[in-house]
């Protein structure tokens, strides 16, 4: 049986100001296959994503930007 490797990626995001921003980012990320959990700290802009290792992290950045927010590099 092949094990699934789970990774945690933390992304610093700018521009999320309220619960609606938080929810938009969270739901968009949870739609990605292989993403199992998303935690968002609204005050610090920290988005923590638990995902399988095959998930492309640049795709996660793109999804956040598509919601209208800036990913700090
Ligand atoms: Cu908002």
Give an overview in words.
This protein has a four-stranded antiparallel beta sheet, with helices on one face. It has helices at 19-30, 57-66; strands spanning 6-14, 35-41, 46-52, 70-71. The protein has one domain (6-71): Alpha-Beta Plaits (2-Layer Sandwich), CATH 3.30.70.100. The protein is built from two helices and four strands, in the order βαββαβ. By secondary structure, it is of the alpha+beta class. It is elongated and about 40 Å long. 30% of the residues lie in helices and 34% in strands. Bound molecules: copper (II) ion. Copper (II) ion (CU) binds at residues 17-18, 20-21.
What is the top-level CATH class? Answer: Alpha Beta
Write down how many β-strands occur, each being a DSSP E stretch of 2 or more residues. 4
The neighbouring-strand order within the major sheet is 2-3-1-4
Estimate the mean pLDDT confidence: 95
CATH topology: Alpha-Beta Plaits
Number of domains: 1
Number of contiguous helices: 2
Quickly give the CATH architecture.
Answer: 2-Layer Sandwich
Q: What are the low-pLDDT stretches, counting only 5+ consecutive residues below 50?
A: none
Can you give the helix content as a percent range? 25-40%
Strand and helix order: EHEEHE
Q: Based on CA inertia axes, which overall geometry fits?
A: elongated
Ligand inventory reads: copper (II) ion
The biggest beta sheet, please? 4 strands, antiparallel
In what range is the share of β-strand residues? Answer: 25-35%
By helix and strand content, what is the structural category? alpha+beta
Rounded radius of gyration (Å): 12 Å
The oligomerization state is: single chain
Please report the distance between the alpha carbons of the first and last residues: 37 Å
